[in-house]
């Protein structure tokens, strides 16, 4: 496993991280499998584990906290996020001072921790001034409850406003951005990557395999694999990605992966890591073998001629995208 600094900070993250977004905790067998995967991640050198208060209604935080408690606190980096409703009250959501402080206390209790390494605003809160959000996060850094803070799905304008607001008010700056980024969703290359490079902000993207599209399991003209996300996902995000255009790209990318003797998933993850602004890639895994495959992307360099061919296949053009 290779490690990278989080932006201009001294914090080192494994190039491949393990996320909790789709962790199955539905029954005892599922929980045991999830614990095996976290343990395997440690064995493979993963030191960054990502979560959020909204994942499984807080159960994902409780699970991850329990499993991580087996290890020394200095061994791992852990993050969580805040924004989505955690109750029916008017103040039980968003990025206000009240909700952030109260929800962080719950998160720390769930995860059996004294502090979080990273804390993200999951989405932008249109009802709270950015100055209030930045100030409370800066205060939490000073209090030692979080070490670094950042945002997830915010627009470039919102990110820049937060950066400049922190500078103006003498508050701690953003250290990290967690956007969606993969071969078929490259919007961050238009502005966000440049913003992060200028201000020394790390990028820890999620959904690097585009909901499973970039694993190669979904093929043009073939039935959906039994038990795959496309057969059970409630919001059908993966199904919306299974277009003729995307499946054609997958077929062509698979040929490059085969020529390089790696799975398509490794190619897709290594492609993201080609950017120096990427600090770590947040992956999911429902089986230990998937995790092993993902970790193989760390240190794998895609040859220049293959990168050029990938660019031709992806044929990316900047576009306007709704964020969040």
Number of strands: 10
Query: In terms of structural class, how would the helical and strand content be classed?
Result: alpha/beta
What general form does the structure show?
globular
CATH class: Alpha Beta
Number of domains: 1
Q: Which second-level CATH architecture applies?
A: Alpha-Beta Barrel
| Helix-residue proportion | 25-40%
Q: Give the SSE order as H and E letters.
A: EEEHEHEHEHEHEHEHHHEHH
How is the CATH topology named? TIM Barrel
The biggest beta sheet reads: 8 strands, parallel
- Distance from N terminus to C terminus (CA atoms, Å) equals 31 Å
The total of helices stands at: 11
Output mean pLDDT: 93
> Which strand order do you get reading across the main beta sheet?
9-8-7-6-5-4-3-10
Query: What's the name of the CATH homologous superfamily?
Result: NADP-dependent oxidoreductase domain
Rg to the nearest angstrom?
A: 19 Å
Per DSSP, what share of the residues sits in E-state strands of 2 or more residues?
5-15%
Low-confidence stretches: none
Polypeptide structure, described:
This protein is of the alpha/beta class and 324 residues long. The chain has a single domain, classed as Alpha-Beta Barrel (TIM Barrel), CATH 3.20.20.100. Helix content is 39%, strand content 13%. It is built from eleven helices and ten strands. The protein has helices at residues 28-43, 59-68, 97-110, 130-143, 156-169, 192-199, 237-241, 244-260, 264-272, 288-295, 304-314; strands at 3-5, 12-14, 16-19, 48-50, 77-82, 116-123, 146-153, 176-177, 202-203, 281-283. Strand 6, helix 4 (130-143) and strand 7 (146-153) form a beta-alpha-beta unit. Helix 1 (28-43) packs across helix 2 (59-68), helix 4 (130-143) crosses helix 5 (156-169) and helix 8 (244-260) packs antiparallel against helix 11 (304-314).
């Amino acid at each position: 496993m290779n490690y990278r600094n989080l932006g201009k900070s001294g914090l080192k993250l494994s190039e491949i991280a393990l996320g909790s977004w789709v962790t199955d905790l539905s029954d005892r067998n599922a929980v045991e499998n999830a614990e095996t995967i976290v343990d395997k991640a440690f064995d493979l050198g993963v030191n960054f584990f990502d979560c959020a208060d909204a994942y499984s209604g807080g159960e994902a935080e409780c699970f991850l906290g329990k499993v991580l408690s087996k290890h020394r606190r200095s061994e791992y980096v852990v993050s969580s996020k805040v924004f989505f409703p955690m109750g029916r009250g008017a103040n039980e959501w968003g990025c206000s001072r009240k909700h952030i402080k109260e929800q962080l206390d719950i998160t720390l209790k769930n995860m059996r921790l004294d502090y979080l390494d990273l804390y993200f605003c999951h989405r932008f809160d249109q009802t709270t001034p950015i100055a209030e959000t930045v100030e409370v996060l800066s205060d939490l850094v000073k209090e030692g409850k979080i070490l670094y803070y950042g945002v997830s799905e915010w627009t470039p304008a919102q990110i820049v406003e937060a950066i400049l607001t922190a500078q103006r008010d003498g508050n701690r700056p953003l250290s990290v951005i967690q956007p969606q980024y993969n071969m078929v969703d490259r919007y961050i290359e238009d502005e966000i990557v440049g913003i992060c490079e200028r201000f020394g902000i790390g990028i820890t993207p999620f959904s690097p395999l585009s909901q499973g599209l970039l694993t190669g399991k979904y093929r043009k003209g073939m039935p959906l694999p039994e038990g795959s996300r496309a057969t059970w996902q409630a919001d059908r995000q993966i199904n919306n990605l299974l277009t003729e255009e995307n499946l054609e790209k997958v077929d062509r990318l698979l040929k490059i992966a085969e020529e390089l003797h790696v799975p398509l998933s490794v190619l897709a993850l290594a492609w993201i890591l080609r950017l120096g602004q990427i600090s770590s890639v947040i992956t999911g895994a429902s089986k230990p073998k998937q995790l092993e495959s993902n970790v193989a992307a760390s240190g794998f360099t895609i040859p220049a001629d293959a990168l050029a061919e990938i660019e031709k296949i992806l044929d990316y053009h900047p576009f306007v995208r709704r964020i969040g």
